[in-house]
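re the bet — no i am not wrong, look at it urself. input seq straight from the record:
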Amino acid sequence: MIAMTPAAFRQTLSRAVPPKSVSPALVALWWARKGNWEKAHRIVMGEHGREAAWVHAHLHRLEGDEANARYWYTRARRGMAKNLPDAEWIEIIEALTND
């Protein structure tokens, strides 16, 4: 995978398809931001690891399913997010991309 900055990742949101050079967790976040929660969820459902678990938690938080979100935050070894969902989306992007 090619390294991408957070700003470069955000710029890809104007495209019709996500960048091919990023992790599945980032692709899921891309689809979530484009309003396709179902597609984002399908992507992270098939992934393992803490990054995908964090994105999975974020998605269930967006959905309003706090119990399921808490489970996935635990799998990601993170506490339940307390910031706004948009701020968390940015936090995850910044953590999963390279400046």
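see?? The CA atoms of residues 24 and 47 lie 8 Å apart. told u. also The two ends are 15 Å apart (CA to CA). so pay up
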